[in-house]
Amino acid sequence: MGVTLAVLTSGGDAQGMNPTVRAVVRSALHHGAEVHAVYEGYQGLVDGGDRIRHVAWDDVGYILTRGGTVLGTARSAEFRDRAGRRRAAANLVARGIDRLVVIGGDGSLSGADVLRAEWPSLLAELVGAGELDQETADRHPVLALVGLVGSIDNDMVGTETTIGADSALHRIVEALDAIGSTASSHQRSFVVEVMGRRCGYLALAAALAAGADYVLIPERPPQPGWEDDLCELVRAGRVAGRRNSVVVVAEGAHDSANQPITSAYVRTVLEERLGEDTRVTILGHVQRGGVPSAYDRWMSAILGSAAVEELLAATPETVPPLVGVRGNRVHTVPLHEAVTRTRELADRITARDFDTAQKMRGDGFTEMVQLFESLSRALPDTDRDSSPRSRIAVLNVGGLAPGMNAAARAAVRLGLHRGHTMLGVDGSFRGLVAGDVRELAWGDVSDWTGAGGAELGISRDVPAVEDLYAIGRGLERHGVDGLLIVGGWDAFASAGTLRAERHRYPAFQIPTIVLPATIDNNIPTSEMSVGADTALNHVVSSIDRIRETSAATRRCFVVETMGGYCGYLALMSGLSGGAVRVYLHEEGVTLSRLAADVEQMVDSFAAGQRLFLAVRNERASEMYTSDFLRRIFEQEGRGTFDARQIVLGQTQQGGSPSPFDRILAARLAARAVAWLGDEMAAGSAASAVIGLHEDGVRIVPLQRAEELADREHRRPTDQWWMRLRPTVDMLAARTAAGPGV
Ligand code: ADP
Q1: Residues 635 and 585 in one domain
Q2: Is the pTM of this model over 0.90?
Q3: Mind listing the pLDDT tens digit for each residue in 245-274?
Q4: From CA 229, how far away is CA 376, in angstroms rounded?
Q5: Are 565 and 643 found together in one domain?
Q6: Which structural domain range is residue 429 located in?
Q7: Does the CB atom of residue 79 touch ligand 1 within 6 A?
Q8: Cβ neighbours for 545, distance < 8 A, ≥ 6 positions apart
């Protein structure tokens, strides 16, 4: 007999639950398992009947773009009682289900763990009551369980991210950007309350991403007298030229005596003490709504399929895992431990042991706390370092990447905070030669965090041999002691040129660091570049719109993404957007592969599909262009459907950076400036690349990064995301009737 599993969503809904359900169902079918969906969470388990239904491949089609959960969720009081769980067990075992994927918060996962622990005794009770025969009970001695965390709060210990948190952050940062602009117009203050009863992640990350002035979170309550501190900060910001001030308050914020701090109280403080015209906005349920972000789609696809693999491999001895995330990878921890530690964290807050609570949130959380404090407090009048080597120049090189401004802003503020003189070079190396270099003050970069484009300008010119003398002169003229080059492959190559020529030009004998900022995401040693997440979100929302048009007619689309020779954007947008085919330069495109694809496409339309979506990287193949693909698809369709080619083009480089890109930019810039400070003090002339690695931000010698580069194709020789390829194929490859959407 085959394996039968069930999936349910429970607790608070979160964007990303639907993509997760889709991945769970399709992976299970791919592995030959039978799948049931449970509707209305645990209440559905207790009720049984048609609340536990078989699901097929197409039942989870077209749900990728929907927020919330199509399976429904409910709080179930009955499931909290053993009698309710006994009915749940009876309903499961009657359908031959003894494997369960639960997608929910810590409450839901605790509930699942209770059901699992009680399973044998519940079945024994059912047998004793004559409601179940012994033979059936013997066939299902244990309930195998896997937990996935669906929660916008990012509040589970044991995983870096939870499904839905990134989308919620998108909603909050969009709101904060909008509030920031109206606040600026009227020179107002805003107090914005965001969700997070026990966890300050959303408030903290949003405050950091949106450049807010102050944040109040449960894990780090302010000290007594904090009202004076807040007022001083807002006043100083005004003096430094800020036209607005924004305070972000987590709904569970409290002071160090655990007395709640309400947004209304913060407003009173600002109004009464500073005479600020202050408004309160409580964001509420908009944070849960809307389309899931690209990250919440691709990560949940990976998590969903990993959960199924865990579940299918489970033996009676298996300790139920929580399938979570660490450094862009699946990371499993024992479910029970994760739930217990999450509870412990809440207890630590109640016991006012805030240091432990913050530590339990993980290093990333502490890093964000420190970063936010430095960025919001680094005022221009901080004591200057008296070190003679202390002038850092920041410049952008290469194509535009959203988040370049956020990187420059963080570098400038943190540099000033450390006592350096921060120089902004307008227009890349050419600007340096022309003398377009200005000293940047704290207030000059105030509104840069959410701005698209590049305030410091940009140029694709990589220094040629004949430019080097003038560049050296430029560095000397402005007394540059350290160089922060923000950009993509051209930035990387420029740093390489300066390094290679430094024996000839003494001016190049200064510490130089590359901060990867490119939508191509192709810089060796950094898993993510600033800008790539924003571009991915752009591509995915374009795909969503394209997908909608197929509601009217049957269509085949070939969507062409940027990326140079690097397939990151193509593969990840294919995974997030539910494409059935992805064409990459890394793999090449062959005629026999195309012939098979055409055949599948024709079959899928014949089987009633309305959409065939292919994503092609712009350089996937010199011969088989997007237009060529479109034409063969159209020709072979023989008039039964339209085939269209959509080249997304430069829009992918524009727009306001995503929350992830803003935070990444700040993290990288902070560490890069600290590194430059140390190297300048040591009189070093080292060159390095900073980047995001599996275990966090790291700095790698430039030479090492060069060894890992495929120069001809301007990409790393090893690309971490290529291992996600099988997941893309699996989720697209509906058996028998051709690909699904
Ligand atoms: P979340 O999963 O978002 O934390 P809740 O804490 O409300 O949401 O839990 C959702 C549901 O999970 C509850 O309505 C209840 O049915 C079930 N549940 C939670 N905790 C337990 C528990 N300790 N024992 C049994 N069921 C529980």
Answers
A1: yes
A2: yes
A3: 899 999 999 999 999 999 999 999 999 999
A4: 12
A5: yes
A6: 391-530+657-678
A7: yes
A8: none
